[in-house]
Specification:
2 copies of one chain form a homodimer. With about 240 residues, chain A is an alpha/beta fold. Chain A is built from 11 helices and 10 strands. Chains A and B meet through helix 8 and helix 10 of A and helix 8 and helix 10 of B.
Chain lengths: ~240, ~240
């Protein structure tokens, strides 16, 4: 099986191939939060790239999650914390969602054959699903404003390692090798490893350290959200 | 001192800041070859981004180095091998140079305050020069068709490690941390480490393994080529 790793949404056009299956990852925190919302019963999540579109949905009565630069937008019901999307609020609901980086990465992958949401929290079931595929799989790291980041690259490395335990992986991409090498250095204590990262320090500044720990914990959920291309929304 | 690492020319707009000093690196092989040509007495190197421009210079009598996809272009005097630019041919000459990735990276950095050419071959003197600067330094990895690569990222990590031995470095960029981590994994035997890389395999296919070894060897030259912004050419 061929796997590749694209370390920034801005690079995807250089990695893209017809028929790719794409895994979008934004560990801190969009894709972890999407998994948490579905775990708590959300019916669908409509990713939108800009605030104006999110506001239009809000005025129509939708629940809206909106974050920019680590903080919840004033008009929204939720920010980008996986802890906010509680079953008592989201169960059975369609939620509109826009974040600094994660929803941008989903947009950049439009045109792929299938798109799944990846996080440490759903690693096991994501890998189980991907190991059955025959298509090339590309992990797109959301990064931070198109800059590459530590935590998404770590996820890519962890994903590749797990895939290699289940199937033959052609590890012929330099970006994949870099991600795998990074994960091998970090895996004994990923939380400690990312404490020097740009985003961890941003989370810390806002008192979100507990979330960082949750976002790096593997297999806390079984959901594997996918993008329903026709209806432009995420489902499980 | 602030240092950042930009792992692909296509990402530079997201890393760029006013007043940056830029180090352009294309280990396999453009920046190693540029250093070799100056070591052997070249007067200047005129980097051009496309083949047509290189052909126009050739018709005016210039010596031309031109490579695409690892191979020398038919019309050119040299390809992209550091071994071709011998003193008997290049001493005192102005050379026009276009390669798949390296000259593209130089173009992408236009607008920076100063631009230097980095390679393992000139590491010591490059670091000596950079350690005296007060501006932010950004290493731009040329990559391969805007995809990130192992050898340029390794150089970035090695450069950061050397800089840290000489001055206080603010290591607050995730890309820098990834590059440094990669170099620490590889530095005992960089040649062995890159043997799995995409570009090493391309070089191997064309019988250029000796060049790969040379390109990864530190401190074989003292030149630190810089880009003369006014005249759009490289000098020492």
């Amino acid at each position: 099986m061929k796997i590749d790793v694209c370390t920034s949404p801005a690079l995807y056009s250089f990695y893209k191939k017809e028929g790719d299956i794409v895994i979008v990852v934004d560990i801190f925190r969009a894709t972890t939060t999407i998994c948490a919302a579905f775990t708590n019963g959300a019916g669908s999540i409509i990713p939108v790239a800009n605030i104006e579109e999110a506001k239009r949905y809000k005025s129509k009565g939708y629940l809206v999650g909106a974050e920019r630069n680590t903080q919840k937008c004033d008009f929204a019901d939720f920010g980008n914390s996986p802890f906010e999307y509680k079953a008592s609020i989201v169960d059975g609901k369609d939620i509109v969602f826009t974040t600094t980086n994660g929803t941008h990465a989903i947009e950049s992958a439009q045109g792929c054959k299938e798109l799944y949401i990846g996080a440490f929290s759903n690693m096991h079931n994501l890998v189980e699903k991907c190991a059955k595929k025959t298509e090339r799989i590309v992990v797109i790291c959301s990064g931070w404003n198109n800059r590459i980041n530590l935590e998404d690259t770590l996820f890519a490395g962890a994903f590749v390692e797990e895939m290699k335990l289940r199937t033959m992986v052609e590890a012929d991409s330099d970006a994949l090798l870099i991600a795998l090498n990074l994960w091998i250095s970090a895996k004994e204590n990923p939380l400690q490893f990312v404490k020097v990262s740009e985003h961890y320090r941003r989370l810390q500044l806002h008192g979100f350290e507990d979330e960082a720990e949750y976002c790096l914990t593997q297999n806390t959920t079984t959901v594997v959200p996918y993008y329903d291309i026709k209806n432009k929304l995420l489902r499980v």
